[in-house]
Amino acid sequence: MSWFIGGIAFLVFGYLTYGRFVEKVFGPDDRKTPAVSSPDGVDVIPLPQWKNLLIQLLNIAGVGPVIGVILGIKFGKIALLIIPVGCILMGAVHDFAVGMMSLRMGGANMPKIVSRYLGETYSKVFSGMMVLLLLLCVTVFINVPANLIDKMMFPDMSFFWWIVSAIFVYYILATLFPVDKVIGRIYPLFGALLVIGSLAISVALVIAGFKDPAILDDCAGFASFQAKNPLFPCLFVTIACGIISGFHATQSPIVARTMTSERQARATFYGMMAAEGVIAMIWAASALAIYNIAPDNLNLPGPAVLGNIATHFLGPWMGGVTVLAIVVLAVTSGDTALRSSRLSAGEMFKVDQINVGRRIATCVPLIAIVTLLLWWSNMSAKSFNNLWNYFAWGNQVVSATSLMAATVWLLRSGRRWTSLVTLLPGAFMTVVVASFILWTPGTGGQPWGLVPGGLPLWISIVVGVLVAAGFAFYVFKRSRKD
Q1: Which of 235, 231, 254, 248 is nearest to 92 (CA)?
Q2: Burial class of residue 210, CB neighbours in 10 A (0-12, 13-18, 19+)
Q3: Is residue 269 part of a domain?
Q4: Are 273 and 91 in contact (CB under 8 A)?
Q5: Is residue 463 part of a domain?
Q6: For the whole model, what pTM was predicted?
Q7: CATH of the domain at 63
Q8: CB 63 within 8 Å of CB 144
Q9: Which range has highest mean pLDDT (14-23, 219-228, 317-326, 365-374)?
Q10: Confidence class of residue 462 from pLDDT cuts 50, 70 and 90?
Q11: 465 lies in a domain?
Q12: What is the count of structural domains for the chain?
């Protein structure tokens, strides 16, 4: 129990201390934000801070801090230490950095940001990969809530494809209409569901944990999982959204376009990532408990374990409300993922997004790709596992890129030593993703990496360190250019 409570205390303390230091590094001031200086009535619209906080939290808190940690806690309760430390030192810094860069560049998305700070060539490759990642994300965030709703509401017969269609239609409407017409109006309700569900499961967990502290000890059944999945680098790919997630780099610019003051940045970007860390801690500890209470859950997929956690601790009715809160997490990340892919594609191909006809034209090919991904990912369980895994490590390519771009920005601004706040986590995540891709053997449900069969882990890590050193050298070269 001390690991769980201590981790949450660290997240709060880290926001109040390291978060304030990072704020001083990036230096938000009183200059006009895009929403104040150049609103367009569609994507750049001033919204109140409380609404921006909710939108940012619901945008970034997808199924990762729930489904991801349900799997990731199998690395052991060490995850309850790594989640808060990683969140404060890496994930929250990442979200804050991208949000500030977007604010200073008129609400720019990642393709434009990367082009300015890491170069046009790098940006072309990165931007294509990022849009594909977003579409993979949209697909995942349609599949997961559709499965949860189908199993929760229709246990005796399947309406899966009808639910998929309904969610997809909502995503399309949410990305086409102005941000204040759909997202800005329904997110407060979704936010309430999220808070109720998370608080309910945390209170029930604390009560159960004090009655039987052994439920938060490492489970003997974790050994077989750990034998196949080394803590480094696998943990940092598996528990992405609780520690650091490149997906957030695609979401922070959405809120950067609706903020009325740069001084809201620490609460909006750094603070909401810390809040997501709390959500991840709740579900990681809950999964640890259910694996000890009912070891049969070790062999179940994440969504099934999620349902068992909710019903065990809260009963069928309140458990259903909590599962609904998780559905909210997925849906509120999927709709903005499609919106971000539209904005990014428009930025890449220089297609203005104010005119509704051009927004529709930009969305049509994106909708077609997602439709194909939905068909492919539901052909078999293996197809969906591959979809999830490619999304997982592709996600961390984006996080490493975002942090390195922020390092160039800080260096060009004369922040030589304080640029380490982004350089160190950026280099670390470069080692993580490079070594994971080289090591991944393509067995046990994992996708094939770059090397058939995978390289030995130690060789992969050494190569990953060399890649990170090369990336850092490139960053210093870019910092000397205008």
Answers
A1: 248
A2: exposed
A3: yes
A4: yes
A5: no
A6: 0.89
A7: 1.20.1740.10
A8: yes
A9: 14-23
A10: very high
A11: no
A12: 1
